[in-house]
Design brief:
The chain is α/β, with parallel strands linked by helices and about 150 residues long. The chain has helices at about 10-25, 45-50, 65-80, 100-110, 130-145; strands at about 1-5, 35, 50-60, 60-65, 85-95, 115, 120-125. Helix 1 links the parallel strand 1 and strand 2. Helix 1 crosses helix 5. This is Multimeric flavodoxin WrbA.
């Protein structure tokens, strides 16, 4: 499982850590979890993964430029090879995450990726329920990849 994230704030760091904790819980077996900052993730990383978790801030109503760069580089190499693979998404914004979610869903629809679990969309400081939802997101995507 590949976690591609842009994590420029303490709020996103807390969400990322919850996703990782869920994906690597003791109940998840035989699933390698690879974490890559969005500007470091490569098309090869995406092609090698069986599923994905995407994390981004909502910047000016859109996904981060870093996540957009990942998609720009990986889209065509992954287009035919990754159809049907599961993904999960978490987004943090100060006011609104709608545009960021819409943009990411457009790309993942184009890639033919399948949403494995509801998006986690948080505005303001993530609370306990938000972090639990991030944990569930990581655990759900990873559990779906167990042999």
């Amino acid at each position: 499982m590949l976690i591609v994230h842009h994590t420029p704030s303490p709020n996103l760091q807390a969400m990322l850590e919850a996703v990782i904790a869920g994906a690597t819980t003791d109940e998840i077996e035989d699933v390698e979890v690879v974490r890559r900052a969005a500007l470091e993730a490569t098309p090869s990383d995406a092609l090698a993964a069986d599923g994905y978790v995407l994390g981004t801030p909502a910047n000016l109503g859109m996904m981060s430029g870093a996540l957009k760069v990942f998609f720009d580089l990986a889209y065509y190499p992954c287009l035919d090879s990754t159809k049907g693979r599961p993904y999960g998404l978490y987004v943090h914004g100060n006011n609104d995450t709608t545009g960021a979610v819409r943009g990411i869903e457009s790309v993942t629809t184009g890639l033919g990726w399948e949403k494995a679990t509801p998006n986690v969309s948080v505005t303001g400081e993530p609370g306990k329920e938000d972090l639990e939802a991030c944990w569930e997101l990581g655990a759900t995507v990873a559990a779906g990849l167990m042999p």
